[in-house]
Amino acid sequence: MSSTYQKQLEWSRNVSRRNNELSKSMELQKDKEHANMFKPRTSHGNGARMRVVDEGGRSKDQKSLHVHRQEKARLEKSRVHQMTTHKKHHVSSHTPPSAGALGNRTVSSQQPAVRLVNDLPAENSTPGSTSGNTGGYRAAYEEEQQNPTLNYNGGEDEGFFYDQLVKEREEWSEERRRMLNVIQVQQLEIERIRGEGREKAVEVARTFGDAVGVFEERLIGVEQGVAQELKLLRSRLGERSGEDGRLESMEKQLKWIIENMGNMGNMGGAKGGGR
After folding, report:
1. Which residue has the higher pLDDT, 253 or 88?
2. What does pTM read for this prediction?
3. Cα separations (Å) of 233 from 221, 223, 238, 240?
4. How far apart (Å, rounded) are the C-alpha atoms in residues 221 and 102?
5. Structure confidence by residue, pLDDT tens digits, 50-87
6. Which string of b and e fits 11-48 if b means at least 16 CB within 10 Å?
7. Distance from CA of residue 185 to its chain's centroid?
8. 136, 69, 98, 73: which is closest to 5 by C-alpha?
9. pLDDT value at residue 42
10. Residue ranges of the domains in the chain?
11. How far is it, in rounded angstroms, from Cα 9 to Cα 2?
12. Are 114 and 80 in contact (CB under 8 A)?
């Protein structure tokens, strides 16, 4: 179990490190392409024209909006193509990670965050002053940047991005299914080991109880045998003491008879001498 967990942890770390390296390489490639790309500059005109605000806070008028869209679309397409080119090592060749590593990963971490700026918010679309429209466009753009939903309106690129998204989701679903199967197998193994432990504990307790019962029976038998032996010994000692008393009485009687016989002999001798 510990070796499997170590493999899963190592796999998760390798995937995170590879994703970080891939993201860094994509950022460097994006910076290089952005530095070498032509940036048209147009006149802003008066304040009555409609303006939009990009990420850096710089304002662009309606004339440069189309150029901005095309530039961003080219950058995103190049980044996605670079990502799919570098991602050659399939996830199925690694050991699935643990449940904790699976919980920390989301769908968005495995899908290319492709967003094409092709649509502008419908509100505040009428021409007006810069101060009146800038706040609405800024809030709408920030909301669009924070929304993870992909917006595919890129014409011929739509099929490519959609196929890539479907492929990524299928791979993620397959990986998730394998990891859930591994987790289920591990849970069944834990339950089996736990059941075997309980059965062994019950068997040991039963064996110990049988041994204690046999010991108690033997102890009771020994106590009963000792009690019977003590009773027999006491009876024998009582009989022997009775015999000793009878012998002592017989000895006393014999002594008395002998003494009486001696006295009777002395009395007879005295009578004969007197005659």
Report:
1. 253
2. 0.26
3. 18, 15, 9, 11
4. 66
5. 444 444 444 445 557 777 787 888 888 877 777 776 55
6. bbeebeeeeeeeeeebeebeeeeeeeeeeeeeeeeeee
7. 13
8. 98
9. 54
10. 2-198
11. 10
12. yes
Question: Measuring CA to CA, which residue among 120, 104, 27, 108 is closest to residue 68?
Answer: 120
Helix-helix angle 157-274:65-86, to 10 degrees: 40
- One-letter amino acid at 240 equals R
What is the spatial distance between Cα 201 and Cα 137, in angstroms, rounded to a whole number? 71
pLDDT 10s digits, 134-188: 445 556 556 555 554 444 444 455 667 778 888 888 899 999 999 999 999 999 9
**What are the tens digits of pLDDT across the range 53-63?**
444 444 445 55
Cα(200)–Cα(193) distance, integer angstroms: 11
Query: What's the CA gap between 47 and 130, in Å, rounded?
Result: 6
Q: Is 96 exposed, middle or buried (0-12, 13-18, 19+ CB in 10 A)?
A: buried
The whole-angstrom separation of Cα 166 and Cα 265 is: 149
Strands 51-53, 59-61: pairing is: antiparallel
The pLDDT, as a whole number, for residue 184 is 92
Across 212-228, average pLDDT: 88
112-150 as b/e: b if 16+ CB within 10 A: bebbbbeebeeebeeeeeeeebeeebeebbeeeeeeeee
> How far apart are the C-alpha atoms of 114 and 112, rounded to whole Å?
6
Q: Please choose, from the candidates 43, 47, 45, 39, the residue with its C-alpha nearest in 3D space to the C-alpha of residue 68.
A: 39
Please list, residue by residue across 159-185, b when 16 or more beta carbons sit within 10 angstroms of its beta carbon and e when fewer do: ebbeebbeebeebbeebeeebeebeee
